[in-house]
Amino acid sequence: MLVSNNHRILRRDVCDDQPAEAYRLLARGFSFQRTIVCFIASILIGATGPVASAQYSPTHPKVVEMVNRGVAFLKAGDRNRGLDGGQAALVGYALYKATGDAQLAKVQQGIAAAQRIARATASYSANGEDKFVYEVCVAGVLLASVDVGKYQPEVLQIREWLISIQKSHGGFGYVDRPTGDTSQVQYVMLAFWTMQQAGMDVPSDVVEACIDYLRATRDPSGTWGYQGIIGNGRLVAQEKISKSLGTAGVGALIIAGDMLGLFGIRRTPKDDAEGIPAAFVRTDLRAEKRKKRSITLTRTDLQGDLQAARLYQNRSNFNGAYWYYYWRYSQERYESFHEIVEGRQDKSPAWYNRGVEELANFQDPSGSWGAEKKRDFYPAEVCTAFSVLYLIRSTQKSIGQLDAGVVRGGYGLPDNVSNIKMVGERIVSAEQASVENLLGMLEKDATAGVEVGLLQKDLKLSQDPEKRKRQIARLSRLLVSRDASARRIAAKLLGRSDDLDQVPDLVFALSDPDPYVPMIAEEGLRLLSRKLTAGKLGVKPTPEQRLEAIEYWKKWYLGLRPDYVFIDRAE
Q1: Distances (CA, A) of 282 to 114, 278, 348
Q2: What is d(CA 321, CA 220) in angstroms, rounded to the nearest whole number?
């Protein structure tokens, strides 16, 4: 669906698109090396090109106007009648991400197509190099994004089918071929990531195996090829390498790493439903239990691959005659996940500004892309959907706001030894013994020896409303940490938040299997409710005592907020 079977992108030198002034230096006999010319050319572009002064973001008036025209094109008439199921799902996804309106006719058409695709997995039989894997992935992304609870049967069917077609080397591709396909791998990882974000389990061994495949099929230059070639324990030259496939490969690698939590960055999703606590998901998303397997990979394992891929992406250009709009969306996805690797988000990055300028030039009078000014392999509806997803930074929206961790406390003495404290087994300064530093330690699994009883008495959340809100959100997510110490400390600090919105999270913590978390959570509930004599939980409460406490605090909270709906979290 989303990429040609035989696409071939010719490589050009990195300087081929640079200003003529750079080449005139060579013509005059200057003995500069070509790398120096490239450097000068980049300066010329930075000084004179339109991107230098442009500071675009999805809220910029020019971008908003472009998106509105594209959305109007996608919504209008019966233009989607000739699209296949996966393309209709893609159009529906782009419209939903751009408008948030799942009731739009084209969104509903996309959902119906996605449901048909999900049902078709039960009887699918490979017949040549078709695009069914792409279609299944886009269908899963759409359904999981719109309402994973409502479309749970279809999303589960898609998840299980994708797991079933994973190849022995860990890759994904055409079902009737032994090789993996880099482009298809990126969409499988995107589908799995979207499901995981919605609260569904994706087996870690499936994700790790895919990472192993991507690392084994990277070209020595730092990019990826079309059908992966696995060397005998070393990197080998790949066939049909290109920037587009490199973008797909490294994007899939980071997505998979993020699914395993290798980059240690927490974030506040922007698409969360109002009123649903961050530590909860719907009870009806519970799937069958899987045997958990410990993760063997670390961020360090990926470092070399990510650095080589980044260098290749920075020094290469997109030179293909087709699939430009497909690549632009892949670029937005990769760059958004690369922000996770770097731990920071740029509101107006240079790559985005450049893409906005190009898409502005390529947009047709109808508001579409791909029909007139820069024709492409796909129909205009598909090119327009890719362009809209790029312009609205759809992946960044799904990732949400990064909550960058802080450097963990040192193991030696701080510079100022006159004012030191102990946090667990760590010696830190008073400045380090803060909520922010503690959160960073907790989120990076650096909690050895950090116990609730060793927290300083005056440890307080930030007085700044926005910082305090972010701290509370991070604490809420820590209630589902695998580290019992992190859960205990999170429950303790949430009880000091003076925020009644955290009551459901603490009620959830009453069911924690740890012997101390329920007692600590109930202490916090007593503080928040000002019912200091309520509650009877002690260390190691029985299941009956936990249930009694849960019902008591639910009833109290519903007396304050009768419209609230408690939602159990999947275990």
Answers
A1: 22, 11, 35
A2: 25
Q: Is 29 contained in some domain?
A: yes
Residue for token pair 């892949």 = 330
- pLDDT: is 21 or 443 the higher one? 443
Tokens representing 103 are 């009731």
Q: Tokens in use for 174?
A: 């055409």
Query: Dihedral of CA 17/21/23/25: which sign?
Result: negative
Dist. CA 118–CA 159, nearest whole Å: 9
Q: How confident is the model at residue 442 (pLDDT cuts 50, 70, 90)?
A: low
More confident residue, 317 or 309: 309
Instruction: Indicate the helix (H) or strand (E) that contains 267.
Output: strand 266-268
* Residue at 131 is within a domain: no
Provide the domain count of the chain: 1
In a domain, 564, yes or no: no
**β-strand pairing of 420-423 with 426-429:** antiparallel
Tell whether the model's pLDDT for residue 48 goes beyond 70: no
Query: Which one of 129-133, 211-215, 417-421, 550-554 scores highest in mean pLDDT?
Result: 211-215
Does any domain span residue 424? no
Strands (E), 328-464: 401-403, 420-423, 426-429
The pLDDT value recorded for residue 154 is: 95
Neighbours of 513 (CB within 10 A): 10
Residue 20 domain boundaries: 1-49
Query: What's the average model confidence in pLDDT over 204-220?
Result: 95
d(CA 4, CA 371): 18
